[in-house]
């Protein structure tokens, strides 16, 4: 089955995302688990961002909160102008119908296997039109399938598709409601190298051609070269950012500064450090037994 692209549907403006002091605690029997511990995240409208981190870091919890699937323990979540922590259920329903689409991990969780690709798209759009009172103007299935590289295969049975192609069909289905924000949970999971690159290229094309804001979750560091900006999640906090191949640490609102992995290998827990400013550059100096041991790193003040 050949992958073919077609003209993209008309572009629409993406939705911005902003969280402040986001905390989420899962209540268990006899113990509470903090999945998120004060996350401050800003994503511009039309931006493409990857949330990178190991399993258990809090990435999927953050994605679910951005989707408005449940409310955080503390903090705020804004999608566009809507504060999800204060929104009434009808507002959230409208947002889910046409503003935000969530691409769950694994194609099987997003598709009805007994329907064709076009029928899956039509099914998703039927629900969106009902929520919008029947007035929603939505792109056609051939347009959407062409955008993700599957032109002219919309009526073939899903059983004839490869895992990578099924993931592309999933992408077309979650785009069926013309969302301003696309949230993708591990979109390249369990795909071979070639299929992974096709899916990432399709996500980038959706972002660039349609103007859709894309936030994806991944544990795959290779995804970073496809995404203009990566945000590392560690232990429920923002651990760092990557832009254009450069890695940055992020100072949180409470003054927390997570160090990159290579620095943690050099600095044992309990190490005393101090910052000094010299000629416009901040230097991290390590103290041993109360005495300075030398310059470890420098960061341009600007």
TrEMBL record:
A GO MF label: ATP hydrolysis activity
Protein's UniProt keywords contain Acyltransferase: no
GO cellular component: plasma membrane
UniProt xrefs under InterPro entries: AAA+_ATPase, ABC_transporter-like_ATP-bd, ABC_transpr_LolD-like, P-loop_NTPase
UniProt keyword annotations, A-Z: ATP-binding, Nucleotide-binding
Domain of life, per lineage: Bacteria
Name of the protein in question: ATP-binding cassette domain-containing protein
PROSITE patterns reported in the protein's UniProt record: ABC_TRANSPORTER_2
Residue ranges occupied by any ABC transporter domain in the UniProt entry: 17-260
Any Pfam family: ABC_tran
